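Before a colleague's protein record goes any further, I have to sign it off. My question to you is simply how this chain folds and whether the tokens agree. I do not need a full report, just your reasoning and any doubts. This is what I was given:
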Amino acid sequence: MEAREFFSEVIGLTDIDLIDRVSGLSKIADFKKGERIVRQGEPQKHINFILEGVFRGYYVNVEGKEITDCLGFRRGEPAMACTRLDLASEINIESATDSRCLQLPIKEIIELNYTYPELQRAYNIMLIQGIERHDNIKKVMQEFDAMRRYQWFLEEYPGLIDIVSHKHIASFLGMMPESLSRLRRTLREGGALK
């Protein structure tokens, strides 16, 4: 899929001039597993729209431990912090698998936001979707027990259990890796997992 198709079909832009402008600014970026593309506390330089692969958002707590905050894998999802484009990132973003993105320079996108209301609307929609996902994750973490959180993960993040580090998944689900291993064993012994 070329950039013009991506911006019209996946992102939902309709203004031909805008599609031409953002397509001209875009480039394909490939990332290796474990490559950090955004550093916590530093300004974000690019918007990376996921084409394939999985990204992990995480922060380092006061004890120096990495806490997985989010996982992104859906085509068209931006692999970036859920903040204003001109602010420093609140989290690190790394490629959890070999991944490919369609990349746009943030500085130029901020400038285009003033000229093209449709671009601002698309950004607002993505921002709202990101906030809704984070709110849902927070609700799941607070209301579900460990087994239900894991089952929710299997439904909401299909196939990721087989390709993302279980240590990162456990952190995302608010449990120790050993607890995740026990849950998987319990489900396997009960015939729910292969």
About this structure: The mean pLDDT is 93. The CA atoms of residues 35 and 94 lie 5 Å apart.
